[in-house]
Structures are given as C-alpha cells and as structure tokens.
User: Fold Tubby-like F-box protein from Gossypium hirsutum.
Amino acid sequence: MTLKFIARLRSSRVVVQDQLEVPDQAAVGGGGDGGDCCWAKLPPELLREVLLMIEDSETRWPQRKTVVACAGVCSSWRLIVKEIVKFPEISGKLTFPISVKQPGPKDGLLHCFIKRNRSTHTYCLYLSLTNALTDDGKFLLAARKHKRPTHNDYIISLRAEDMSRGSSSYVGKLRSNYLGNRYTILAGQSAHTGSKMAKNHSPRLPNLKHASSKVHLVNYSMAHISYELEVFGSRGPRRMQCIMGTIPTASTAPEEPARARSEFSGLNTDIFQSNPIAHSEPASMGNFLSGSLCGQKNGALVLINKAPRWNEQLHCWCLNFHGRVTVASVKNFQLVASPENRKIVLQFGKVGKDLFTMDYQYPISAFQAFAICLSSFDTKVACE
Assistant:
C-alpha cells in the first residue's frame, strides 16, 4: 500500500525541493488550507501511519525528497510532517531548508564537504551521502566572496545561482576586517516576518504572488571569530577562537543541554518553523573588527582550535582527523569547547586541490560551521 501511495504522490502536482530551491505557491501552500486537495480528505489516523512509514523508510537523500514532498501537499499534511520529522540534533538528518540553521546531531559528527571554485570565488557546501571522501552529495549552501576596500564579505545563500543579499534564498554573511584576523557571522532575517506572525498567529503563508520580489532583510550578529596575530613573525599553526553569541556555555554540558533553536526566515515558508533563540546583545561590529573583545563573552559558548602536535619524523604539525583529512594545510583545524574537553564540535580539512571536508555536530549548525570554515579560506596578514 505504501509503495502505491508514494507512486501516486510522485505523480501528483507536488513540487519536490530536490535542490533546496525556493518553493512555489503550489508546493508551499498545496491548495491553501487543503480544502481543494483530495489528499486532505484522508482520515488523520491513516495519514499519520502512512507518513510515519515513509519517514522511517527514508534515511538518506535522495530518498528523503518524498518526505519533503509530503509536507508540500496541503496544510494538514504539513502539520503532521512537522510533528513526525525530528530536529537534526535528535535525528541526525537534514530534511528541510531550516535544518541548516538548527544545531547538528548530538550522537556524532555529521559529514559534509566543501567545493571551491577559484575563478568565481564561490564555495558550495554538500551533505555527504556515503562514507567516501568524495561523492555527489546533497547540496546545502553556497557562498561567494566579495572584496571591499576595507573588508571582505562572504554572502551565503540556499541557491548557488542566486547569491544576492536581496533574494529570498539569502541566509546570512561572513564579514572580515582589513587584516583578515577578525570575522563576524551575520544571520539574515526578514524584517517583517516576526511582526506578521505576532499579529496573525496563523501558520498560513502570505500570498507569494503579491509579495515583492525583493525581500527586506536585516542582519543580526550570531558569532565572532578571531585569529591570533603573529606580531613577532614566528611561524606556526593558526590559533583561532569562536565566540558563539547565540549559544550558551551550558550547551556543552551533558546534564543541561541547550533548549534554544535558531530561527530561519530566509524563506517565506512554515514547513518547519522553530522557536527563535534569544539573540545576544549585539556589540558594535565595528568595535569587534577593529580589535575590541570586551564584553563579548557574557556566558556565550567559546570554541578554540585544538592545538596540533609537532611530529619529529614528518617535521610538521599534526592533528588526528581519523582519515577525514588527507592533505596537509594551514587551513586545517579542529574546534573544541575547552582544552580539557576532547569532544570535537567542528573539524575542517583538505582532501584535494579544491575539495575540503567539514564535519560538525551539536550545538552549532551547518550555517555556522560553513561560515567558520569560510574564514579559514580568507587571506590572513601576519596570522601565520
């Protein structure tokens, strides 16, 4: 019965978000309240059992696109799918676009990789579908570097073909200072989304046909990254520190896990809404980029890179990446919460000329991990 049901579903008018594209009105609304959709007339008990079977049977992409399709049939289906599909920190699965801004799994690192295009200054993040270091992967995010007179910006988007700040696929950006030793991760958020949801208290979507093509967005500071300067010209591995302004220190304590979720509103969709995390009091980005770190921590989670060890036989600095990194590079790093805490929150390393692995886990998200890795690509004056 389930196979016939999926076959009929795939032959229907549902639009599948196979490449995390911005859904159209039919895919998102599915007929608005579902009154015009024949699928909405199924008994809720039967529908829930069928969707549970589909969710249990689909563990990896591209099969999970059927779960995404189910959420786009109508509003009643969407509500049930929202109840069935668990957060990435519990399930370890990235299903909907909002998953890229939710904390990673708690039971282990989620394997991803980054492809760099030197000619276009673009970077694409993919979710690994196999245990191999190279596979086709599932596209998650893309970024493009923009050089400014006094700093560099990396615009991060859900679509590789549309990386403008005014598009609905805009996720956020990474901004550096002139020396390339300090960075700020800025998350994009629709300026009108919060007020509309607060007034209407309705999960229904606004009519996208009448919406403006240019989305008005505001950025809020999510994290700060700093690299230690080598003022005396000594050569050695990079030393970095990440202050995660929207993640409390208690998130790394097993007895008191963080309850907060990151809000994703880059897309006008309620397929998988989450509770917004309390934004940290944003200190002046100009002060941070110019060198001031005063008052930045305030109980926020601070990640530092794991110190490598000097190998006398190889005559180089070494870290154990457990086979996930194969090429020596100054860009390679592992982030932990403290020198005593051996749990790796994020690791990044080179496996080819323009291919890098990125593995992350709770409490950071794919978006935060991607932005931190982008800072390692950037040119650094007097940092190594």
